[in-house]
Amino acid sequence: MPSTTAESLAPSRRVHQKTGVLLMNVGTPDNTSTGAVRRYLREFLSDPRVIDINAVGRFLLLEGIILPFRPAKSAEAYRKVWTTEGAPLLVHGRALEKAVGEALGDDFSVKLGMRYGNPSLKSVLATFRKEGIDRIVLFPLYPQYAASSTGTSLERVYELVAGEWNVPTLSSVPPFYDHPGLIEAFAVQGRPVLDRVRPDHVIFSFHGLPERQIRKSDETGSHCLTKPDCCAAMCPENRWCYRAQCFETARLLAKSLGLADGTHDVTFQSRLGRTPWIRPYTDVVIEELAAKGSKRIVVFCPAFVADCLETLEEVGMRLQEDYVAGGGEVLELVPSLNATPAWVSTAAELVRAASARAA
Protein backbone atom coordinates (compact mmCIF):
# COMPACT_ATOMS: atom_id res chain seq x y z
CA MET A 1 0.00 0.00 0.00
CA PRO A 2 1.50 3.36 -0.98
CA SER A 3 2.41 5.65 1.87
CA THR A 4 0.28 8.71 2.55
CA THR A 5 2.29 11.91 2.57
CA ALA A 6 1.48 15.60 2.66
CA GLU A 7 2.68 15.79 -0.93
CA SER A 8 0.33 13.06 -2.09
CA LEU A 9 -2.61 14.73 -0.34
CA ALA A 10 -1.87 18.19 -1.77
CA PRO A 11 -4.14 19.27 -4.60
CA SER A 12 -2.66 19.12 -8.06
CA ARG A 13 -1.64 22.37 -9.67
CA ARG A 14 -4.37 23.81 -11.78
CA VAL A 15 -3.83 24.44 -15.45
CA HIS A 16 -3.04 28.14 -15.96
CA GLN A 17 -6.18 30.01 -16.94
CA LYS A 18 -6.99 33.55 -17.92
CA THR A 19 -8.73 35.87 -15.50
CA GLY A 20 -11.91 37.45 -16.79
CA VAL A 21 -12.38 41.19 -16.32
CA LEU A 22 -15.95 42.46 -16.50
CA LEU A 23 -16.08 46.22 -17.09
CA MET A 24 -19.56 47.27 -15.95
CA ASN A 25 -21.44 50.43 -16.85
CA VAL A 26 -25.08 51.51 -16.71
CA GLY A 27 -26.04 50.96 -20.34
CA THR A 28 -27.67 52.59 -23.33
CA PRO A 29 -30.57 52.01 -25.74
CA ASP A 30 -29.83 49.92 -28.81
CA ASN A 31 -30.76 52.83 -31.08
CA THR A 32 -32.43 56.24 -30.95
CA SER A 33 -35.98 55.16 -31.77
CA THR A 34 -38.61 55.93 -29.18
CA GLY A 35 -39.37 52.21 -28.85
CA ALA A 36 -35.76 51.29 -28.11
CA VAL A 37 -35.46 54.08 -25.56
CA ARG A 38 -38.72 52.99 -23.93
CA ARG A 39 -37.44 49.40 -23.59
CA TYR A 40 -34.21 50.66 -22.06
CA LEU A 41 -35.93 53.01 -19.63
CA ARG A 42 -38.40 50.30 -18.57
CA GLU A 43 -35.54 47.95 -17.66
CA PHE A 44 -33.53 50.72 -16.01
CA LEU A 45 -36.28 52.35 -13.99
CA SER A 46 -37.92 49.06 -12.95
CA ASP A 47 -34.84 48.36 -10.83
CA PRO A 48 -35.82 48.75 -7.14
CA ARG A 49 -32.35 50.10 -6.42
CA VAL A 50 -32.94 52.94 -8.90
CA ILE A 51 -36.51 53.88 -8.01
CA ASP A 52 -36.46 52.65 -4.43
CA ILE A 53 -40.12 52.91 -3.53
CA ASN A 54 -42.72 50.17 -3.04
CA ALA A 55 -43.39 47.98 -6.06
CA VAL A 56 -46.92 49.27 -6.66
CA GLY A 57 -45.83 52.89 -6.49
CA ARG A 58 -42.89 52.21 -8.79
CA PHE A 59 -45.15 50.50 -11.34
CA LEU A 60 -47.68 53.34 -11.32
CA LEU A 61 -44.96 55.98 -11.60
CA LEU A 62 -43.22 54.16 -14.43
CA GLU A 63 -46.22 53.08 -16.47
CA GLY A 64 -48.48 56.01 -15.74
CA ILE A 65 -46.14 58.99 -15.76
CA ILE A 66 -42.63 58.26 -17.04
CA LEU A 67 -42.96 55.81 -19.93
CA PRO A 68 -45.88 57.48 -21.72
CA PHE A 69 -43.92 60.74 -22.10
CA ARG A 70 -40.20 60.52 -21.34
CA PRO A 71 -39.01 58.07 -24.06
CA ALA A 72 -39.74 60.45 -26.93
CA LYS A 73 -37.93 63.30 -25.20
CA SER A 74 -34.99 61.09 -24.28
CA ALA A 75 -34.80 59.68 -27.81
CA GLU A 76 -34.49 63.20 -29.15
CA ALA A 77 -31.65 63.87 -26.71
CA TYR A 78 -29.87 60.64 -27.67
CA ARG A 79 -30.04 61.61 -31.34
CA LYS A 80 -28.04 64.74 -30.57
CA VAL A 81 -25.06 62.76 -29.28
CA TRP A 82 -25.34 59.47 -31.23
CA THR A 83 -22.37 58.68 -33.44
CA THR A 84 -22.00 56.60 -36.59
CA GLU A 85 -20.62 53.84 -34.32
CA GLY A 86 -23.46 54.06 -31.84
CA ALA A 87 -24.02 55.52 -28.38
CA PRO A 88 -21.01 57.40 -26.96
CA LEU A 89 -21.07 55.35 -23.75
CA LEU A 90 -20.85 52.13 -25.76
CA VAL A 91 -18.23 53.46 -28.18
CA HIS A 92 -15.96 54.68 -25.38
CA GLY A 93 -16.62 51.49 -23.42
CA ARG A 94 -15.48 49.35 -26.33
CA ALA A 95 -12.36 51.47 -26.72
CA LEU A 96 -11.60 51.07 -22.99
CA GLU A 97 -12.22 47.31 -23.23
CA LYS A 98 -9.64 47.04 -26.01
CA ALA A 99 -7.07 49.33 -24.39
CA VAL A 100 -7.28 47.75 -20.93
CA GLY A 101 -7.05 44.30 -22.50
CA GLU A 102 -3.85 45.32 -24.28
CA ALA A 103 -2.45 46.85 -21.09
CA LEU A 104 -3.15 43.72 -19.02
CA GLY A 105 -1.87 41.25 -21.59
CA ASP A 106 -2.69 37.66 -22.43
CA ASP A 107 -3.41 36.55 -18.86
CA PHE A 108 -6.67 38.52 -18.86
CA SER A 109 -9.83 38.50 -20.97
CA VAL A 110 -11.48 41.92 -20.76
CA LYS A 111 -15.16 42.35 -21.66
CA LEU A 112 -17.61 45.26 -21.41
CA GLY A 113 -21.04 44.54 -19.97
CA MET A 114 -24.02 46.82 -19.31
CA ARG A 115 -26.32 46.62 -16.32
CA TYR A 116 -29.22 47.50 -18.63
CA GLY A 117 -29.33 46.93 -22.36
CA ASN A 118 -26.56 45.38 -24.43
CA PRO A 119 -24.06 43.82 -24.16
CA SER A 120 -25.80 42.41 -21.12
CA LEU A 121 -23.99 41.15 -18.05
CA LYS A 122 -25.62 37.76 -18.64
CA SER A 123 -24.17 37.49 -22.16
CA VAL A 124 -20.67 38.42 -21.00
CA LEU A 125 -20.73 35.85 -18.19
CA ALA A 126 -21.82 33.25 -20.75
CA THR A 127 -18.86 34.21 -22.94
CA PHE A 128 -16.48 33.79 -20.02
CA ARG A 129 -17.99 30.37 -19.38
CA LYS A 130 -17.38 29.36 -23.01
CA GLU A 131 -13.79 30.56 -22.71
CA GLY A 132 -13.27 28.32 -19.69
CA ILE A 133 -12.80 31.26 -17.35
CA ASP A 134 -13.83 30.63 -13.77
CA ARG A 135 -12.08 33.53 -12.05
CA ILE A 136 -13.54 36.98 -12.74
CA VAL A 137 -12.70 40.51 -11.60
CA LEU A 138 -15.80 42.70 -11.49
CA PHE A 139 -15.04 46.32 -12.31
CA PRO A 140 -17.99 48.70 -11.76
CA LEU A 141 -16.97 51.80 -13.73
CA TYR A 142 -18.41 54.19 -11.16
CA PRO A 143 -15.78 56.02 -9.07
CA GLN A 144 -18.18 56.77 -6.21
CA TYR A 145 -20.34 54.07 -4.63
CA ALA A 146 -24.12 54.23 -4.97
CA ALA A 147 -26.60 51.42 -4.48
CA SER A 148 -28.23 52.49 -7.77
CA SER A 149 -25.01 52.07 -9.79
CA THR A 150 -22.26 49.99 -8.16
CA GLY A 151 -24.67 48.17 -5.90
CA THR A 152 -27.13 47.09 -8.57
CA SER A 153 -24.37 46.08 -11.02
CA LEU A 154 -22.73 43.81 -8.45
CA GLU A 155 -26.07 42.45 -7.26
CA ARG A 156 -27.05 41.48 -10.81
CA VAL A 157 -23.81 39.55 -11.34
CA TYR A 158 -24.24 37.79 -8.00
CA GLU A 159 -27.79 36.79 -8.99
CA LEU A 160 -26.61 35.42 -12.33
CA VAL A 161 -23.71 33.35 -10.99
CA ALA A 162 -25.84 32.05 -8.11
CA GLY A 163 -27.90 30.22 -10.70
CA GLU A 164 -24.89 28.32 -12.00
CA TRP A 165 -23.98 24.88 -10.72
CA ASN A 166 -20.28 25.74 -10.97
CA VAL A 167 -20.00 29.18 -9.40
CA PRO A 168 -16.96 31.18 -10.57
CA THR A 169 -14.60 32.92 -8.18
CA LEU A 170 -15.37 36.62 -8.05
CA SER A 171 -13.44 39.62 -6.84
CA SER A 172 -14.30 43.26 -7.37
CA VAL A 173 -12.66 46.64 -7.74
CA PRO A 174 -13.82 48.79 -4.80
CA PRO A 175 -14.93 52.42 -5.21
CA PHE A 176 -11.96 54.42 -6.48
CA TYR A 177 -13.18 57.98 -5.91
CA ASP A 178 -9.92 58.97 -4.19
CA HIS A 179 -7.44 56.92 -6.22
CA PRO A 180 -4.48 59.11 -7.24
CA GLY A 181 -4.59 57.71 -10.77
CA LEU A 182 -8.24 58.71 -11.21
CA ILE A 183 -7.57 62.22 -9.91
CA GLU A 184 -4.56 62.67 -12.18
CA ALA A 185 -6.42 61.30 -15.20
CA PHE A 186 -9.16 63.91 -14.75
CA ALA A 187 -6.54 66.61 -14.10
CA VAL A 188 -4.78 65.70 -17.35
CA GLN A 189 -8.08 66.17 -19.19
CA GLY A 190 -8.86 69.43 -17.46
CA ARG A 191 -5.60 71.38 -17.42
CA PRO A 192 -5.58 72.28 -21.14
CA VAL A 193 -9.21 73.38 -20.95
CA LEU A 194 -8.55 75.58 -17.91
CA ASP A 195 -5.51 77.12 -19.56
CA ARG A 196 -7.45 77.92 -22.71
CA VAL A 197 -10.77 79.09 -21.24
CA ARG A 198 -9.41 80.81 -18.10
CA PRO A 199 -12.77 80.47 -16.35
CA ASP A 200 -14.32 82.71 -13.73
CA HIS A 201 -15.54 79.57 -11.99
CA VAL A 202 -15.16 75.78 -12.09
CA ILE A 203 -18.01 73.34 -11.46
CA PHE A 204 -17.57 69.72 -10.41
CA SER A 205 -20.93 68.27 -11.42
CA PHE A 206 -21.83 64.77 -10.24
CA HIS A 207 -24.90 62.69 -10.98
CA GLY A 208 -27.55 63.29 -8.36
CA LEU A 209 -29.45 60.89 -6.10
CA PRO A 210 -32.61 61.22 -4.02
CA GLU A 211 -31.81 62.30 -0.48
CA ARG A 212 -33.57 59.18 0.84
CA GLN A 213 -30.92 56.98 -0.82
CA ILE A 214 -28.15 58.90 0.92
CA ARG A 215 -29.87 58.40 4.25
CA LYS A 216 -30.22 54.68 3.53
CA SER A 217 -26.45 54.43 3.11
CA ASP A 218 -25.88 55.85 6.59
CA GLU A 219 -25.51 52.80 8.81
CA THR A 220 -25.38 55.01 11.92
CA GLY A 221 -28.70 56.64 11.06
CA SER A 222 -27.50 59.95 12.48
CA HIS A 223 -24.78 61.43 10.25
CA CYS A 224 -25.70 61.87 6.59
CA LEU A 225 -27.63 65.06 5.70
CA THR A 226 -28.08 65.92 9.37
CA LYS A 227 -25.79 68.98 9.35
CA PRO A 228 -24.36 71.31 6.71
CA ASP A 229 -20.81 69.96 6.96
CA CYS A 230 -21.61 66.23 7.03
CA CYS A 231 -19.55 65.75 3.83
CA ALA A 232 -16.67 68.02 4.85
CA ALA A 233 -14.37 65.02 5.24
CA MET A 234 -14.50 61.26 4.87
CA CYS A 235 -15.02 59.43 8.15
CA PRO A 236 -16.30 56.01 9.31
CA GLU A 237 -19.84 57.36 9.58
CA ASN A 238 -20.06 58.41 5.91
CA ARG A 239 -17.85 55.76 4.32
CA TRP A 240 -20.79 54.53 2.19
CA CYS A 241 -22.09 57.99 1.39
CA TYR A 242 -22.11 58.80 -2.31
CA ARG A 243 -22.32 62.54 -1.66
CA ALA A 244 -19.33 62.48 0.71
CA GLN A 245 -17.30 60.51 -1.82
CA CYS A 246 -18.17 63.06 -4.53
CA PHE A 247 -16.98 65.91 -2.33
CA GLU A 248 -13.74 64.02 -1.64
CA THR A 249 -13.13 63.50 -5.37
CA ALA A 250 -13.72 67.20 -5.97
CA ARG A 251 -11.41 68.26 -3.11
CA LEU A 252 -8.58 66.11 -4.42
CA LEU A 253 -9.10 67.21 -8.01
CA ALA A 254 -9.24 70.90 -7.07
CA LYS A 255 -5.99 70.48 -5.16
CA SER A 256 -4.34 68.72 -8.09
CA LEU A 257 -5.45 71.53 -10.41
CA GLY A 258 -4.30 74.23 -8.01
CA LEU A 259 -7.73 75.86 -7.75
CA ALA A 260 -8.05 78.53 -5.09
CA ASP A 261 -10.80 78.42 -2.47
CA GLY A 262 -13.97 80.11 -3.64
CA THR A 263 -13.32 79.48 -7.33
CA HIS A 264 -15.15 76.17 -7.60
CA ASP A 265 -18.31 74.39 -6.48
CA VAL A 266 -19.58 70.82 -6.16
CA THR A 267 -23.03 70.32 -7.67
CA PHE A 268 -25.40 67.50 -8.64
CA GLN A 269 -27.29 67.01 -11.90
CA SER A 270 -29.94 64.81 -13.54
CA ARG A 271 -32.59 64.91 -10.85
CA LEU A 272 -35.92 63.24 -11.62
CA GLY A 273 -39.31 63.75 -10.03
CA ARG A 274 -40.47 65.97 -7.19
CA THR A 275 -38.79 64.36 -4.19
CA PRO A 276 -35.72 66.15 -2.77
CA TRP A 277 -32.42 65.22 -4.39
CA ILE A 278 -28.97 65.96 -3.03
CA ARG A 279 -27.93 69.59 -3.35
CA PRO A 280 -26.73 71.94 -4.63
CA TYR A 281 -28.29 71.45 -8.07
CA THR A 282 -26.03 72.02 -11.08
CA ASP A 283 -28.58 73.89 -13.18
CA VAL A 284 -29.51 76.21 -10.32
CA VAL A 285 -25.88 77.04 -9.46
CA ILE A 286 -25.04 77.77 -13.09
CA GLU A 287 -28.08 80.03 -13.38
CA GLU A 288 -27.02 81.87 -10.22
CA LEU A 289 -23.46 82.31 -11.47
CA ALA A 290 -24.70 83.81 -14.74
CA ALA A 291 -26.96 86.20 -12.80
CA LYS A 292 -23.98 87.31 -10.70
CA GLY A 293 -22.01 88.24 -13.81
CA SER A 294 -19.92 85.14 -14.40
CA LYS A 295 -18.87 84.91 -18.04
CA ARG A 296 -16.76 81.78 -18.37
CA ILE A 297 -17.32 78.41 -16.66
CA VAL A 298 -15.54 75.08 -16.98
CA VAL A 299 -17.44 71.96 -15.90
CA PHE A 300 -15.94 68.62 -14.86
CA CYS A 301 -18.18 65.54 -14.49
CA PRO A 302 -16.09 63.22 -12.27
CA ALA A 303 -18.86 60.68 -11.64
CA PHE A 304 -18.59 59.55 -15.27
CA VAL A 305 -15.48 57.85 -16.64
CA ALA A 306 -16.94 57.95 -20.16
CA ASP A 307 -18.79 60.67 -22.01
CA CYS A 308 -22.49 59.91 -22.35
CA LEU A 309 -25.90 61.54 -22.55
CA GLU A 310 -25.51 63.14 -19.12
CA THR A 311 -22.22 64.82 -19.97
CA LEU A 312 -22.51 65.60 -23.67
CA GLU A 313 -26.17 66.57 -23.96
CA GLU A 314 -27.20 67.62 -20.48
CA VAL A 315 -24.10 69.65 -19.61
CA GLY A 316 -22.34 70.29 -22.91
CA MET A 317 -25.49 71.35 -24.75
CA ARG A 318 -28.50 72.16 -22.54
CA LEU A 319 -26.69 73.75 -19.60
CA GLN A 320 -24.37 75.58 -21.96
CA GLU A 321 -27.40 77.08 -23.72
CA ASP A 322 -29.02 78.01 -20.40
CA TYR A 323 -25.81 79.67 -19.18
CA VAL A 324 -25.48 81.79 -22.30
CA ALA A 325 -29.18 82.69 -22.20
CA GLY A 326 -28.66 83.88 -18.62
CA GLY A 327 -25.84 86.23 -19.61
CA GLY A 328 -22.78 83.99 -19.59
CA GLU A 329 -20.47 83.67 -22.57
CA VAL A 330 -18.70 80.29 -22.42
CA LEU A 331 -19.53 77.06 -20.60
CA GLU A 332 -17.09 74.36 -21.59
CA LEU A 333 -17.30 70.71 -20.63
CA VAL A 334 -14.05 68.92 -19.84
CA PRO A 335 -13.97 65.65 -21.81
CA SER A 336 -14.36 62.56 -19.67
CA LEU A 337 -11.65 59.94 -19.29
CA ASN A 338 -12.95 57.64 -22.03
CA ALA A 339 -9.95 55.55 -23.15
CA THR A 340 -7.21 58.09 -22.51
CA PRO A 341 -3.77 56.67 -21.62
CA ALA A 342 -3.76 57.90 -18.01
CA TRP A 343 -7.14 56.29 -17.32
CA VAL A 344 -6.28 53.05 -19.11
CA SER A 345 -3.14 52.75 -16.99
CA THR A 346 -5.10 53.39 -13.79
CA ALA A 347 -7.87 50.96 -14.75
CA ALA A 348 -5.31 48.22 -15.43
CA GLU A 349 -3.70 48.94 -12.05
CA LEU A 350 -7.05 48.64 -10.27
CA VAL A 351 -7.74 45.32 -12.00
CA ARG A 352 -4.34 43.89 -11.08
CA ALA A 353 -4.85 44.88 -7.43
CA ALA A 354 -8.30 43.26 -7.29
CA SER A 355 -6.98 40.14 -9.00
CA ALA A 356 -4.08 39.87 -6.54
CA ARG A 357 -6.41 40.14 -3.54
CA ALA A 358 -8.39 37.17 -4.81
CA ALA A 359 -5.33 35.04 -5.61
Our count of domains comes out at 2
Percentage of residues in strands: 5-15%
Strands side by side in the biggest sheet:
2-1-3-4
Mean pLDDT over all positions: 95
Rounded Rg: 22 Å
Q: In terms of per-residue confidence, which ranges show pLDDT below 50 for 5 or more consecutive residues?
A: 6-13
CATH level 1 class label of the largest domain: Alpha Beta
Derived from helix and strand composition plus strand pairing, the structural class reads alpha/beta
- CATH names the topology of the largest domain as Rossmann fold
Q: What would you note in describing this structure?
A:
The protein is built from 13 helices and eight strands. Strand 3 (135-140), helix 7 and strand 4 (169-172) form a beta-alpha-beta unit. It has helices at residues 6-9, 34-45, 55-66, 70-81, 88-104, 121-130, 147-162, 180-197, 211-217, 242-257, 282-291, 309-325, 341-358; strands at 19-28, 108-117, 135-140, 169-172, 201-207, 264-269, 296-300, 330-333. It has two domains: 19-175 and 341-358, Rossmann fold (3-Layer(aba) Sandwich); 180-333, 3-Layer(aba) Sandwich (Rossmann fold). A four-stranded parallel sheet has the order 2-1-3-4, sandwiched between helices. It has a four-stranded parallel sheet with strand order 6-5-7-8, with helices on both faces. It has 359 residues and is an alpha/beta fold. The longest helix has 18 residues, at 180-197.
